[in-house]
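Structure, all two chains, one model.
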Amino acid sequence: QVQLVESGGGLVKPGGSLRLSCAASGFTFSHYYMGWIRQAPGKGLEWVSYISYISTSGSSNTIYYADSVKGRFTISRDNAENSLYLQMNSLRAEDTAVYYCARLGYGSNYPLDNWGQGTLVTVSS
Amino acid sequence: EIVLTQSPGTLSLSPGERATLSCRASQSVNSYYLAWYQQKRGQAPRLLIYGASSRVTGIPDRFSGSGSGTDFTLTISRLEPEDFAVYYCQQYGSSPYTFGQGTKLEIK
């Protein structure tokens, strides 16, 4: 069955960095768009970023970032390792949230059909 | 950006009753691209409905989705104790793909 397992969360000071990882199994990872969604404590769901399924020769992945993280966060994937990553720099208090890794489909116009259990990022001095 | 407004914010009902949750969009959403998720306390969201009305395999048939354009509805025909949770709608047809703010379904 599909499994998504996030790791890398923790407590970090404002201005600091963290790298989140998501280990995927149970499906052909390289065929799917993948994304990160976050949820601040007691709040709703917010898109962070997504990345397309494969980089074709001579072209780059299709990548989306929410305006709130653009220029600070970088999404990447390693299809050989079945892993998704989120490099988070210049962290702010408002980035405090549970970060979920989720699977889209063969394009971005798909619902999020599988989610990880989430990893908590706390930005505080 | 398409803003999704869910109502009510909180719905208090008893097991066995019918629940009707609303999701209104600030502009028209292609019905193919409207989803509903359920989130229980301390858990990740779970996809229930996609394409406005298609149930995910394994989701009980007491859950149904309907609607088009700017007005969408999630209906739970007879509430079971495990249905009390927070429900989110999401549109994935127009980037940025947005979520509603959620409806909390609580036991009366």
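Chain B has no helices and nine strands.
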